[in-house]
C-alpha cells in the first residue's frame, strides 16, 4: 500500500513489482487511499472500511478472487505500512503475513511538533486514538481482539502488544 505522498501507482512506477508478480504468479492490488492513514474519517471517506470490506467483495464479485488466508499477505510503505499492520492486526484471519516497509507505526511524533503542517491535517486520528503511545501498536491500530489464528499475525500481535 502506498505512502502519504503517493498513490496506488507508486509501486508500479518506483519498483519492479510487475516483474515479481509475473514471476511468482501473484495478484497485486494497489488501491489509492489518499492521505487517510487508512482510517475511516469521521466526516469523510471510510477508507479502512473500503480496504477491508468493499474492495475484497468487489474483487470477488468482478474477478472471482477469494484467496485463502495462507495465500494472502498485506504490505505497505510508510503510511501504507501503518495501514498494512492495522489491517493484519484487526483481521488476522485474513492475512498470513504483513510487512511494513519504513512504516509509520505511530503518529505520536506529531504531538511533539504541533507546528508541523501535518499535525493539523491528522488531528482527527490523534482524537480517534488519544491513548496511543508507540509502545502499543494494537492500541494504536484499534485492534479489536487478539488474533486466535496462529501464524505471522499472531506473532505480530505478541510483538506489538507487549508494551
Biggest beta sheet attributes: 2 strands, parallel
The whole-number mean of residue pLDDT values reads: 75
Tally of strands:
2
The proportion of residues in beta strands is 5-15%
* Global geometry: globular
Rg computed from alpha carbons, rounded to a whole number of angstroms: 16 Å
- Return the domain count: 1
CATH topology: Rossmann fold
How many angstroms separate the termini?
A: 26 Å
Q: Helical residue percent?
A: 40-55%
* The CATH class: Alpha Beta
Q: Which ranges are low-confidence, i.e. pLDDT below 50, for 5 or more consecutive residues?
A: 131-142, 144-163
* Count of separate DSSP helical elements: 9
SSE string, helix = H, strand = E? HHHEHEHHHHH
User: How would you classify the quaternary structure?
Assistant: single chain
Which structural class do you get from the secondary structure elements? mainly alpha
- Can you list the strand order of the major beta sheet? 1-2
CATH architecture type:
3-Layer(aba) Sandwich
Task: Write out the CATH superfamily name.
Answer: Alpha/Beta hydrolase fold, catalytic domain
What can you tell me about this protein's structure?
It is a single chain. With 163 residues, this protein is mainly α. The protein has one domain (10-160): Rossmann fold. The model is unreliable at 131-142 and 144-163 (pLDDT under 50). 29% of the residues are buried. The two termini are 26 Å apart. Strand 1, helix 4 (79-90) and strand 2 (97-101) form a beta-alpha-beta unit. The protein is built from 9 helices and 2 strands; from the N terminus they run H-H-H-E-H-E-H-H-H-H-H. Helix content is 44%, strand content 6%. It has a two-stranded parallel ribbon with strand order 1-2. The longest helix has 17 residues, at 47-63.
